[in-house]
Specification:
single chain, 5-stranded antiparallel β-sheet, globular
């Protein structure tokens, strides 16, 4: 499954990046206070951390690829 990352919006609070799998919505990355958090689908919980998180966006993208690229739907 091919994963791609598309910047959706940037605000003063941070960046919102859509994660697509084979062109379909799969999850999102939110940047809050310099920490990028990944949420699969729309499983974001108030006050919760992401399923994966990292201060470095490229490292987070690599971790997402490693965890999800080979998984089927």
């Amino acid at each position: 499954m091919a994963l791609t990352f598309k910047v959706d919006s940037t605000t003063r609070e941070g960046t919102f990046i859509r994660v697509l799998r084979d062109g379909e919505p799969f999850g999102k990355i939110l940047d809050a206070a310099g920490l990028y958090r990944f949420y699969e689908a729309d499983h974001e919980k108030l006050g919760g951390g992401g399923e994966l998180q990292d201060a470095n966006l490229e490292q987070l993208k690599t971790a997402i690829q490693a965890r999800y690229a080979g998984r089927g739907r």
